[in-house]
Structure formats: C-alpha cells, structure tokens
Amino acid sequence: MAVAIKQHHGTKGSMDHPTVSNLRQPLIEGEKSYSEVTTDICKLLDNKPGVGWWVAFSVSVCFLIAGAIATTYTVTTGIGTWGLNKTIGWAFDITNFVFWIGIGHAGTFISAILFLFNQKWRTSVNRSAEAMTLIAVMCAGLFPVIHMGRPWLFYWILPYPNARGSLWVNFRSPLVWDFFAISTYFTISLVFWYLGLVPDLATARDRTISKLKRAVYRIFSLGWNGSNRTWSRYETVYLVLAALATPLVLSVHSIVSFDFATSLIPGWHSTIFPPYFVAGAVFSGFAMVMTLMILVRKLMHLEQYITVHHLENMCKVTLLTGSIVSVAYLTEIFIGFYSGNPNEMFLILNRVLGPYAWAYWTMVTCNAIVPQLFWFKRVRTTIPVIFVLSILVNVGMWFERFVIIVISLHRDFLPSSWAMYTPTVTEFGLLLGSFGLFFTLFLLFLRLFPAISMSEVKGVLHYARR
Amino acid sequence: MSGEKLWKKFQQQDADDAPQLIQLESARMPRAGVSRRTFIEMIGFSAAALTFTSCRAPEQKIIPYLKQPVEFTPGVASWFASTCGGCSAGCGVLVKVRDGRPIKIEGNPEHPLNAGGLCAVAHGMVFGLYDSDRVRQPLIASKPATWADVDRQIIDILAATQKTGEKVRVLTGTITSPTSREAIAKFLSQFKDGKHVVYEAVSTAAIREAHARTYKTPAIPQYRFDKAKLVVSFGADFLGTWIAPTQFTRGYSTARDLREGSHEMSRHVQFESLMSLTGSNADARVRVSPSEEIDALLLLAKLVSSEGTAAVAAVDDSRISSRVREAVQQTANELLKLHGESLVISGSNDIDAQCVVNAINQALGNYGKTLDLNATSQQNEGADQEMVELVREMNAGEVGGLIVSGVNPAYDYYASEDFSNALAKVPLKISLNPTRDETSALVDFICPQHHFLEAWDDAQPVRGVISLNQPTIAPLFQTRAYQESLLRWSGDGRPFYDVLRQSWKEKLFTQQKTHATFDEFWDHSLQDGFAVLQTQSSEQPSFVADQMGKSVERLGARSADHASKLTALLYEKIGLRDGTHANNPWLHELPDPISKITWDNYACVSPKLAEKFELEEGTIVRISNSETTIELPAHIQPGQHDDCVAIALGYGRTSAGKAGTGIGVNAYPLVRFDNGTFQYQATGIKLEKTAARVQLASTQLHQTLGGRPLIKEFTLDDYLKKHTAGEYPKESKSIWKDYQYGEHKWAMVVDLNVCVGCSACILSCQAENNVPVVGKDEVRRQREMHWIRLDRYTLGSDDNTTVEYQPVMCNQCDNASCESVCPVLATVHSSEGLNMQVYNRCVGTRYCENNCPYKVRRFNWFENQHADPISNLALNPDVTVRSRGVMEKCTFCVQRIEEAKIHARNEGRNIRDGEIQTACQQSCPAHAITFGDLVDADSRVGKLKHDERDYILLEEVNLRPQISYLAKVRNTEEVEA
C-alpha cells in the first residue's frame, strides 16, 4: 500500500473542490494523510480529556446515580413505587425498554446494511454507532429485569436445565422470544463491533507507551500483524458477519413488536406492528446517532471526520423512515375504522381525543411533522437545527411507545376497569438513570476505544479526490 | 398401642431389607482411595454445599400436640353451627375452625331465615375477632385490673345504689336472646328502679310504634318478600341495610328467580330520593324528593284505601308532580289487582308514615299473607323514646348506675354531647363494650365482653326461630360474657353456659315434641344451630283507624313544609352500617355497590345539584343547619333527587382503633328526634362549596357502559317471547384443538337477574382466600386486591336511572390469554379447566394482567401481609399468602375443589353436584352463583349453560371462559336501550 502524500498544508476548509460534483464530495475533509488520521484518532485515547468531556461525564454520572437510587428503591420496596395499577401493568418500564431497543437499531443498520450497500460514508460513524447500539441494548436490557415483581428471579426466563422438574420456559410467550432476539442481536453486534476494532486496537497497541495499556490492547488485538493474509481473512469474516447481522436488524424489533402484536388488547393486537416497529427503530436510532455525532465532533474535535455530508445523509434516512412511520400512523387510524370493531374504533378515538391525546399529538408532531423539514437542504445542512430536530424525533419516538402501551391499556374492554396512569418520581429517576448509563458508557467508550474506525477511514481518504 | 406396633413392624421390615440395601449402597461407593477427579468433585461439592446452605430461609419447627384433643385432626377444618352477632338480624352461620381458630363464617344453609346466605358485615366478623385493638382485660379508670377487683368494687357500689334507691339502667342494643334478656332482668330486679333500655343508632322504632297504634301490637311484623308478587317500597333499603337484609334478599330473589323453567317473577316498585341498593334493583324506580315521597305515600293510600278512607280522602295531592302522580296511579292499579299478594313498606322512621303504610297493607289484605304479626320480628328493637328519656334522667342526676353493653351513644346518639355530659353525672358508669370506643372512654369500669365467636348465647330474631350461639375458640383475651358479668353482680356466679342450658331446659324444651330428652334436644339444636318452635297461630289483630286522621294531617303538613327544601338524608352503607364495626379494614375497603367508593363517607348530590353548586367529584362541601356543621367531600350520584344530599352514617369515629379512627365524617349530629322517634333526615340544610377538593378512593372510575353489550337485559315480556342472550353459536369452529377434559371441567353460571349487588361475595372471597387489604391510598391508585369485583354501570336519564351489576372474577378461560404470555409458565391450564396461578413460579412481569380482557388479575405491588400476630390468625391456612411482586387472582376456590375430591375419593364415590361451593357462591343470599362440573351431564351448571339467558362476557374475544352469565330480566314495560 502506498503511503499517502500530503497535498495541502494548513487548509481546513472543504470548499476548495470546485470541480467536484455534489455527489463526489470528499468524505473526510482536511486532506488527511494516513498518519494524520492515526494521530487524530489515537490522540483521543492518549491525551487527557478536555473540559467538555468532563462536564458531559459528570452530568451523565449524576443521572446514573439518580437511576441507581431509583432502582434500589424499586427493588427493595416493590413495583408499587411506580404509578402502575390493576389496569395498567406496564408504562414507563416497557416504554423505556422499547425505546432503547429502538435506539439500538441504527448501529448495526449503519455498519452492516450500509456496508453491504457499499455506502462509503458509513466509515466515519459506524464505530460510534455500533458502540451506541451495544450501550442502548444494555440500557434496554435493564428494564425487563427491573420491571419484574421479583427481579432477583429474572434468570427464570432463561431456558436452562434445572432441578425443578425440569421446568422450562414458556416458548409461547413473546417475552421469551424477546430474550432470544435481544441476546442474539447483542451478541452479533458485539462480535461485529469487536471484529471491526481489531485492526485499530493493533494500531493503539503499537503506539501506546503505557505498559498496561499495551498489554490490554495486545490481548484484544488478537495478534494482528497487518499482513495481507490477515487483512484478507478479516474482510471475509467482516462481510459474512455483516450478512448475518442484517436480518437481525429486522428481526429484533419485529419480535419486540410481537409483545404487543400477539396480545389481544385493542391498540396492541395489530399485524402492522413488525414493519412499523422496525421503521420506527431505525428512525429513532438514526436520530440518536445524529445527536451523538454532533456532540462527538464538537467534544472530540472531529469536525473533519464527521462532516455535514454525513449528517445530511443520515437526515435523509431519518426522513424516509419518519415518513414510513407516518404512513403507519395513518394506516392505524384507517384500519381502526375499517375493521368495524367497536373496540378498535374506540381505541383510535381515545388516542386522538382521550385524556392522553396530548401524548398522541406530541408523537405525531415529533415523528410525522418534524422530520418533513428534512426535505429542505438548508435544514439538512444546518447543524444546530439538525441537533434540535434529532432530539425532537427521539422525544416523539419515546412517546410513540408510551402511546402504544399506556393509551391501549388504560381503556380496554370493560369500562369498569378503566384507569389513569401518572408516573412517579421513581419512574422518572429510572428514565433519567438510563440516559445517565447510556451517556456514561458512551463517553467512556470515546476515551477507551478509537471512536472512528481508522482502518476503514484510511480506505476512503482518497474517495472523491482528484 | 397400635401406633407402637406399626413402628415395630416398620422397623422389622427395615432390618429385613437391610442386607440388600447395604449391597446396593456398596455397589455405588467409589473404590477405595480417592482419585484426583473425585477429590475435585468433593471439593467443589463441599464448597457449593457450604455456600448454599447458608442461603436458606431460617427453619421453623412445627410442634405437634402432646395430647391431641378428641375429634380433632390437625389440618382438617371443623364446622360449628352458630348465630351471627354482626347485627340484630340473627342469621344462622357455620363457623369454620381450623386448628382451633375460627377462620371463616358462612351462612347456615339449613337456617330458616338466611338459608345459607350472609352479608358482607358477617364475613367481616372474623376479622373483628382478631382485632388487636380489642380491650384485653378489665380496666378500672383506664388502668388494667383483675376481674376479682372489678367485681368487688362494682358490687360494693351497686350495694350502695340499692340502698339509695337510685335508678339503674342497662343500655344495650337489640338483644334477641331470651336468656340474655332474663339475665338483664335478673340483674335489674335487685334495684328499686331498674330498667333495660334498648337503643339502636339506626332505628326502626316507628314501625313498632305504628303497629302499636294501628294494631295494638307493638312489634315489627315479619315481611315475606318471597310471597309478594308486587313489592312497593318507599325508600326502604331492604336489600341493603333495612332490618334483616340477608333474609329479605333471600325472599326477594326467590320470588324473582327465572332459572329452571320458572316464568314468573315478582315486580318491584321503589319510590326514593337517594340511590339505594334496593332502588337500583327495582323494576320501576320513581325518583321523588323527600317531601314527594310523603305525598306519593299519601296518594297511594288514598287510591287503594278502603278502611280509614275518610282520613285519607282528605289528602292534599296538589303538590305532586304529574310524573309521580302517574307512577303512583299505575302502582295503585297494579296493587288493587293483587289482593293479599303485595307488600308495601317504607324506610321512614316516622310513626305517621308507618301508620299510613299499615293502612295501605291493611286495605290490600296483606296482613297474614305477606306481613305476619304472629311470628313477629325482634330484629332492630331500638326504643327511641326511652333512650331520649334515659338521657333526660341522666342529665337530671336521677340515674345512679348506667351499664352500657354493645352500644356506643357517645358517638352515635343524635345529641352525643348531651349524652356525654349526662353520662358524667352518673355516679357508676360501666361499659361492657369489647373495644375502647367513644362511650367506653367516658366510663369508670370497662368490663370487656367476648366476641360472639367466643361466647355462648342464643337468639330469637323472629318469634319461633331460636338460634344457638356457641363459642368456637377459647377467649383470646381476659374477657367475660356480658351476661356473666351482670349475673355475677346480682350474686349469681354460674357460668352463662349453665344459665343458658337451664333456661332452654325450662322454657324451650317444653315447647317442642320432637326430642324426648333435653340432652338430645340440646345436642340437636347445637348441631343444627337453631330450633324451630311451634308458634300458636292466632288471628291477625284487627286494624284500629282512630288516629289515622291525625297522622295524615301531620304528614301533609310536613310535606308542605318540606317541599323543595334541601334535605340531608342519612343512610347506612352496606359495609360499615351504623359504624359499630368501624375498626374493620375489610368493611372499609369493601366498595359501596352504588358509589364504588371505599374508606370514606361523602355527600351524594345529584348531577343537577352538583352543577348548581359547581361541585366536582371530591369537592369538599360544607353542610350546615342550626345545630351542626360538617364538611365532607361531594360525590355525584346519578339517580338521586335534586332536593337532597345523602350522607352515610357510621363514619367519623374518633376512638375506633387503628383502622377506623378518623375515617370519614360523623353525620349523626344531623339526626333529629321528632315525634317520638329518630328522624334520619334534616330538612332545610345549607350546602356550601369550599375551595378544597380530595380524591375519593373509588374502585371504578367509569360509570357507563359506553354502548358496549356487556350486560344483557330483557323485559319480562321479551324474555317470555323466547329471546336468547348469546350472540354466537355455542359450538364454534376453531383451527385449534380444544382441550380434552377427562374427569372434571369446572364451570360457573352467574344469574344477573337475582344478583342484587349486595357485595357479600367480595368479603367472603376475601376471608377465604387471604386477600389483603391495601388501604385508602392504594385504592386511590387503583390497586385494590379483591379477586371478585362487582361492576356497576349506570344508564338512563336523571328521572329514569337504571343500574346494572355484574360480578366479575377470573373467567377461567380455555383459550386463556394470560397463559400464553407468561414467560415462566407461572399461569397454566389444569386438566380440569382451571387457569392456575403458580405463585412461587411467578416473577411478576404483569404481562398476564395486561392481556386479560376481564382485568381480574391482581398484583402485589408491595409486601401486603403484615406481621400482626393477632389479625394473622384470621388467615386461611389452605391458601398461600402471596408475597410481594406476585400476581394473584380467583382460583375457583381450588382448595375447596381439592378438599371435596379427597373426601369423595376416601368415600369411594364421585363428587356430588353442588358438593363444592365456592366462597362467593356459598355466601350469596340470592343464590345467584352456580358452580359445578360440566363433565357431569346432569349438573345444574351444565343445564344452566343451556338457559336461553346464558351469555358469555366478551364472547367476541373468543377466550371461551368457564363463566357465563344469565341475562337480567326487568319486570317492566320498556327497557333502556
């Protein structure tokens, strides 16, 4: 491989490619050389973090502590510390669970599906997006455990040989399917992410002066030597894993949606749920990637690696999936009335006009109306606007799950049991805590791992250059 | 002896087997010397064993009886016939005793009055026994003392009183026990002026006074609702709280039962102002203002009367509205067609009104048919005039000694302050009450009496039916039967048991001919719980009309005076009744069937009145008249008249105990004494809105059906024209294989037509299944735990409000939606059609709760069971106490099913139809619930499943539940769509 020769010095702007068409904009700005890329990325691991990182980390840890307190209180006192009741058995808990699982969709989508589609721009964001996926799935995984009445027995939902007869799990229960789907997804994502890390870990190993770090990186880089054979096997495995991970992107949220779709509560019992949930998950996942990437490029000074071009691409995916979700909303309303089922019709009316209509309209505004602004290039390329909109999308997606869970449950078949749900401080604590955990782990990731895939970025440095 | 032999034999056999065993063991033993592998295994095992043994819950040893009592098997329940002491209605009960503890009260199916049914209060009495707030020993000036001290001091003071000749009064509630009355009489006979005053906080004295006036018979007649083809009630809540509701519900539902080929049902017309349980069941409910109720009664008298015509002809009916007039006219026409087959009653405690009712019944020929003045009722015998007289005497300082037993006038007397002040003037004040209530707090001596489950007694609620009350547990505390206390203070040291036996031998044995010896008679009566004596049937006394004119005049004047004035109506709720049992959390948490509110009383206002005063549900209102002011939350009650505010009595206790103190507001100060009786209404009150608002602890937040066909209802005509209720064919096709049931398939049918909504099933279930009480705040959060609930829906307009009830418990579905979603198989289908909940497997995902369309699953949000060593004695050992984080629900009383199966197997027979009764079914005074085995082709439940009225709740969801309902039938012209 030839060593890259620096062509420019001191120019940082990207506007000096007048002859390049819009479609052929360089992916990485600043005319980086290979060594510059290595230095830029590894600098994040070697140097002390900046003030921005520390501020973000402190805030995240505070949230995490709040969550830990809420969790301790719940586990020691009982689910009664939440606002649930005889009618509404799930609310914030499963809303948060589905929300985080949804967030966990973008990473594998970016790294696997976009890889298969040969989308070169993914290289700058895939590492962080995959890390985000793993962390989001961890956050999600907490809620099914905490939400149990007796969380210390959570392992009973795992099928393992036991001395109870042997008593297996109920393979008819979507919660068991969830367990399989999520654990498979997590495993594949972890392996995929780790595999992608190996060349970069080797780079870190070779650069670091700390003995401890070197020892750790040595173990985890699996003896990577950069030989042609290593590269060739690496790329084959990467391709195979990408192909394996791709169906999982679709299956996880389909199966999570079965929690609702296979139930009989109006508003849950719906065949539209699997595709609708997958689109929603990718939608929210991309929004979260955008939020994070805007923060990362600012905090870690990676503006040249994560460019407006990347963000614009992600805006387009968000626009597409947001529109799919909007169609799903309209379809639900149509089917509600088309079904002729009074319970379904009532459900739609209750969603749109009932006591929780504010939640429904928040959802519609954030998920169906707000992303439509991405039709405008000005919006897609103005970073503060993208930042705000990406957060709004995730607010909307959180409310989507709230709407599905709480509004459907609070007024179902027998009016005698209709009830209202009001969250408690503990539940807000858990929600905050999950964000705390998410950002704490993500900020640690930024410090401990190369946040951008050096080896892959090096492969696209020449992309679109004269 | 035989046990020892068996042991020997067993040991012998053991020794015989030994060589083989040793051989077998040695085959399994490892070869000598320990291999490395075995060593590691052993190390691993020991480490694991050491670790895990320390994780175990602490062991608790069960100590067996050293000497086992005769006829007693640990773990097997015994049943004792007794009499309920919850109120004066005197229902026959069977007390279930497990390992020496009474744990459940059920109606005695043989008892002539209640025939197996029981009310909610009766079920709560078990909890009352184990109330840790009971007074545990005699107290002198609030200090613990011994009975010997107490007796000595009291006897000394009484001796002094005997000398001075001061008045001595015994103040009790209704005592239907002839032997106890004798004991009281014997005690009082020592004094120059001794008198027994009977006081009831919620009195029906006017009925007795009216019969004294019109028949010269001061008694409450026996009402025969089973014989009445038309019942017309003016505000009498005879199904809920009036005199003997369980007995009346039994009669009423018998006359309305359409199961098994019956095509006749009685008709019920109710004129009332507030919405009562009884009114909500009426075929025609006419909403009237309190003054209109009087007008309507007078008009009805005018229209049907033949005797005393002169008096009632003068009735001024100009105030009556055309709607009410029409209703009265129609009722009168119907009544006149049914000579001797109707029953007119009034819930008023006004003597004049009751006189008019008597005149109407007399004119309709009902005496001797649906009203019996021979076998009169002795239930609720409060004598209001005497009570007022007593307070006057006390105030005047004429009373030297007052002994209070079973009543609490310092709380529930209409002028309780007067009573308290008067009490202070009595030199000797003794309370025999079991708790340190408001009255006991003011006395010198508290001599706590037994709970009725600890005591001997008898009761004669209706003349000719005499019940026995036997102790089912040794007294928990140092208490003493009140009769024994009184006898001891009159120099008779016998235990009350001896007194009772002697009295029965002398008085009752002679009145019967069935048994030859007294011991046989006694044993039989004790076993049955009651004895029916021959009553000499004499002619019904003749009607005396001489005072009718004055009565009609007074009533007319009152109605004119009260017209369109705002009136406070004071009523009892079926759970708490008059407030005596206010320390019972079961009763507090029982949702009122009409309002569905728990743990509170409130001012019921009509929707129009609420609009006028801009009240919302829970707005605190101030209700005042010249005497008193109370503040309590408003509840908007459809169907109530705009001219009244209804407030429940029995709340606002200041000294009831842990559970009862400070719950609600005391409305007794609004009661008036007028015209010789207590009046449970206050006219001309002022209603003001305050800025405060509270959330009432209601278990049902939505009152209407919203057009959903959940409760099916026909008119009688429609039903007779062979309408069917089920919408879908009974045998529907499915691509899934149905469950195959072998031996049993348990199923239930609930007849909505006879169910009156009395809610006794809820408490019966609570007692049977260890259902926890969660308290007001948790009910506000919609987390009550009752396994069976009574859904109540309101339909119709202001003037024509109908109410529908539907008991809902786990439907035990074949295609159970809860079973498929549980990840850990904690809820599974049994081979007998039961949907079983495995508590120790449940991890609490609540998915089943979400997916249940009937919403009958209950989750333990917190650790609901508390370590109260006394009240925990009420727990049923056959039913697991559920821990925190576990889902629970109705099991069809699986413990009863299993018990019956064991009995049948031991006796080598099949289970008989009707042998298994679920707790809700057993307790139902209306016998609305049928339970049985669908595999048994002749079972009653199987036949009812083919009734035309049979339908399944939410049949379209196709869960194929084992519970179905029989549609309600109203004996009326049109029915609300």
- Helix-residue proportion of chain A: 55-70%
Indicate how many domains the architecture of chain B comprises: 4
The proportion of residues forming helix of chain B, as a percent range, comes to 25-40%
The CATH superfamily of chain A appears as: Formate dehydrogenase/DMSO reductase domain
What's the architecture of chain A, going by CATH? Answer: Up-down Bundle
Low-confidence stretches of chain A: 1-17
Chain pair forming the biggest interface? A-B, 49 and 54 residues
How much of the residues of chain B is beta strand, in percent?
A: 15-25%
Describe the structure.
The complex is a heterodimer of chains A (466) and B (977). By secondary structure, chain A is mostly helical. Chain A is built from 16 helices and no strands. In chain A, helix 4 crosses helix 9 and helix 10 crosses helix 12. Chain B has 977 residues and is α/β, with parallel strands linked by helices. Chain B folds into 4 domains: 161 residues, Rossmann fold; 172 residues, Dimethylsulfoxide Reductase, domain 2; 133 residues, Barwin-like endoglucanases, CATH 2.40.40.20; 248 residues, Alpha-Beta Plaits. In chain B, 30% of the residues lie in helices and 20% in strands. Chain B has 29 helices and 42 strands. In chain B, helix 9 runs parallel beside helix 11 and helix 9 packs parallel to helix 12.
In short:
The complex is a heterodimer of chains A (466) and B (977). With 466 residues, chain A is mainly α.
What key phrases describe this protein's structure?
heterodimer, A: 466 residues, mainly alpha, Formate dehydrogenase/DMSO reductase fold, 16 helices, disordered N terminus, B: 977 residues, alpha/beta, Rossmann fold, Dimethylsulfoxide Reductase, domain 2, Barwin-like endoglucanases, 4 domains, seven-stranded mixed beta sheet, 20% strand, globular
